[in-house]
Amino acid sequence: MIETAIKTTGYGASGARSPLGPIEVERREPGPRDVVIEISHCGVCHSDIHQARDEWHNTVWPCVPGHELVGRVTHAGEHVTKFAQGDLVGVGCMVDSCRQCRSCRAGEEQYCEGPHGFLATYNGPFKPDGSNTFGGYTTSVVVDQDFVLRIPEGMDAKAAAPLLCSGVTTYSPMKRYKIGNGDKVGIVGIGGLGHVAIQIAKARGAEVVAFTRSPDKIADAKRFGASDAIVSTDEKAMATYAGKLDFVLSTIPESHDVNPYVKLLKRDGRITLVGVLAPIETPVDNSVLAFERLSFGGSLIGSIAETQEILDFCAAHGIAPQVETIALEQINEAFENVVAAKVRYRYVIEHARR
Length: 354
Ligand code: ZN
Ligand code: ZN
Fold this sequence. Notes:
This protein is an alpha/beta fold. It has two domains: 6-162 and 322-350, Alpha-Beta Complex (Quinone Oxidoreductase, Chain A, domain 1); 166-298, 3-Layer(aba) Sandwich (Rossmann fold). The chain contains eleven helices and 17 strands. It is globular, with a radius of gyration of 20 Å. The structure holds zinc ion (2 copies). One zinc ion (ZN) binds next to helix 2.
């Protein structure tokens, strides 16, 4: 057989303490149901940093992050029906799943119960053949058509990229819990996820209150659609919303004390954490939950169908993440700025930029 695996260049890490540097990886030979995508843009998610620095203790080296990919289809296999050469498409956090389990059959691939769970776009070494997957910090990728998203007509490629993770991650629980008209919603943490979540909640008809540690994000939060924005360390201001909210979505990407936000909920309210995949270090006071019958929980990214829905929803409502484009070579500096909460509000790698 002729060796037709595709070589692609990008940036990756060889260890938890090493900065990202130039790397060449191989993509599989495209099969009949695969599309080959020339990646033009890739968002920089806080997860990329957690993974590249092995903060979840499961990183396989080399690690080539990136799960907010947008680009053009350069090849469509003979059985590809959904896409054609030249289409502008996206790939989010998953590139495959078992497709047979209860979750997969229900269209909730992100909760795949197969032996290896869903196949992550990068750091997905649990494929049957044991090989790793590599993300969008490279210039091309080969993906099964069922895990490829259509970028709506007229949507800017660089603005579409963050929707593939930050958009769907915040949209999925709002859809699940039918958050919308008449609801009062708190969005906690105004970063890559939070600034999109404000726009989505507002477009769904909710009244949105933003909570941030950074006083300089107050004006931006209102510009994104919040009717009010509170500095979370201001206890007096926090107290004005005690018992007032129906739903709180926390997007803070590390362990944090959720008790001040639980207190903002009305009876039967719900708080969902989407930014942190680690133990919550400060115990949640169940007496507060019990006395108001509150629900406290988490939510993981979103399904492929929901990812397409949020792309279409954002196109219909004119929702766009606020992005700063960078060259791939600036990625280490970008990581530092994301950790220091200096990014406004999502870095997007533009591969054509040097
Ligand atoms: Zn992400
Ligand atoms: Zn499955």
